[in-house]
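Researcher: I'm comparing several assemblies side by side, and this is the next one on my list. It has 280 residues spread over two chains. Same procedure as the others: predict the full complex and return the structure.
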Amino acid sequence: MTLGFVLIVLSGALYENWLTLIVVAMFLLAPLPNSLCGHTTSDDFMSDAPDLLADFGRFLTGFFLMSGVALPVVFAHVGLINTNAMLMSLAGGGIVYISLITFGTFFYESDEY
Amino acid sequence: MSLRIHLPEVSSATMRACGVYASGALYAAGFYLMLDTALWSAHKNPTDMHIGFVDWIPLVLVTLGMAIINLVERSRLTSGMAFGYEYGGHGTWQARVVLFVGTAFLSGGGAGSVLILLLRYIIPDRSRPEIFMGFFNILSSILIMNSSTCLWLAQNVKDDYSYSLQH
């Protein structure tokens, strides 16, 4: 996680261009909707109505993840940031997100058992 | 003995979740494609042709249509007899009208992006670099339409406990 943050901050600092910090925000926001909207869907035996809130959370998650990937590419294509900065921020964002997810799963399992 | 290919058994909840994730990702892809086009037009454009408000209208229409379609309550759409009970009696045709309006928005956005390509870029005989703005406009509305379809299909996956998905 630290490595990810270091990569992202470097991608901003090396090129004096702080647009890449938006990527951190995206990848940090990505796990949030799912944890807020809860995982009550699949286990609920009796409920007939599909859980729209959980679906909305998933939709937002997909949106944020794609944003995290797409934003640096867009910035690089448009010329707002360097290509190297794009690569660094992509890698950093990926590392941050993966570490968050891993943390989440471990936390979830230890909660359950 | 059947020679059918057996799909790996995926529970309907997982399929549904994946569909919704994919829908969000597709929506974001469409949105950022359009954003990319607009930013490109503002920063790197060698010509005097720029993305204006008109170019965003298809995106707005398609997004509205998607919202409308997915706000329709599924159970209202079908009415009829099941297990001897009549269900979904009132409100059925309203739901269908709303669905129709949503579809109209969706296809209107798509047609609008094609129109923009034709009217703004092809008929004035624009050439290489800036005609892509029109094509990307179409592509982004297509992506968002696909996202909407994906969401609809994912939410219509049978989430009862029938194990006959492969039949």
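Model: For your comparison table: The helical segments of chain B are 12-43, 53-71, 92-122, 128-155.
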